[in-house]
Amino acid sequence: MTAFETPESLPGSEPAPATKSNIQNELSRLQGDRQSASLFLFYWGGHGWVTLEGERRLFYADARKDDERNLDFNDLLVSACSDSYRKMPRQLFIVDTCANYMPQIKNPPRDQLGKKEPMFSPEQFVLFAGKLGDRAKNLDSEQTGLYTRELLKELSDLPPSKIWPPDMEVIAYLLKHRFDKLRSEGLAEQIPTYIWNRGWQGQDNIISPINSNSSSNIRGTKKPYSTKNLSYSQKVELRNKLTDCQGVKKKARRDLIFQELLKSYPQLLIQDRMQTSSLIMNLLDQLQSHGYALEKFIEIIKIEATGQDSSEEMEKKIEDLETTILEIFDPVPSSPKVEKINAENQWLIRINSQEIRIPFKLSEIADTTIKNTMTAQEMRTWKEIHTQCEILVRNYIDIYKYIMDEQVDTAMKSLMEFKEECIKVLLPLNQLKISSPRIFTFEQIRHLLNIHLYIEILLETMRYKSPTLRNKSNNSSRGKYFELGKEFADVIHDLLFEALRLADRVLKLYFDQEQFS
User: Which helix (H) or strand (E) holds 6?
Assistant: First the structure.
């Protein structure tokens, strides 16, 4: 853990152990330090768990069975937003620990990690080895965690650069793909997640953890379940799925769940003398009267189930519960976020509250303008862009044919693989943008940075069926969004070829200029 360009020297050849006193002394020192730092980097590898409230706790190195001393990581994130950390406005946290529920820890000690006021708004990026409920795999023979090993592989694959940190969102997605593959091979079970509070470039946003179970990420981004009036049949269906979970079925575990629920919603009246089915039915009526109360109840049940029972049968029941919730509260998928605006001769794409516009015809670029971007450094960038464009164009051609021939299943599978490829290309392109910013003022090149987003939009058009067509399997019944997707596939085709043609043109101009000179 350091906030310095070069790490502070530690006595001896080994790092200082992460004991309670060492960590608290270091945090106190950082809070009182007046030296500005380009980055506050916090890495923790070891043991951890999650409370029923969803708080992540990290065991200190000197924790014992009779002294479960721990660092409250949620509290640390809040403290890092206080004025004491104002000299460290960019913050990167990496946590490689388990996040499973440990019911035997009844009242864990809680440390206050510093003052919380006044507040400021740092740029925080947090990488977790697993979502709530996951156990992070440790590699004893390598003396590291699986997540740390894979993270270091991604970082070591980066092209040489003086820019640090790299684009952490790209790193998070690359890690997601790594662990998708590891899970498919039976080499991992955990699902890495991340939190992004304010982008590195200063935009105010929060990107929720991938596959997170935390309702705090739902709050403010989706309408609460209480806004939907449930029919009697929907209540019965939801009750049946809830009571099928052992945590609800067994009284001792159910009491613990209710205890946690009442901490957030003390106004609830729980009639525990009723039969379980009647009790849950009565509780559902009450939960529907309180904001996000139903979300909280479901979240507690899922966390409790993960901690108590990791069997395939329990996982199937939780999966069935999640499917029922989706069918009741989000029955129709959002339509693809792409629109063709003929009156303005452009395409409009909406992604994460951001609008991207693509004109029907890109601007022509004069040779004199191009020649202004032909320094030695920029030519190295142009050559790399040309190489990347050739690869992308070659791999997209077959996908484009599948879409035009309406071979939807084949196209979708290929598109998902192509999106992975585009994400991998994104990181070196961003590095090139930093070293050669003038080249990326050309819209033909600038759109390359968004190709992975365009592919996701294209995938949405392939997946989407309107409510009246959801039960029909034939491709011709997909409706207007499928036809719109075919047009948008044309747009991506043209953008890739335009970028390649421009890079070709630059290389030819440079070659002719060198020949003449």
Answer: none
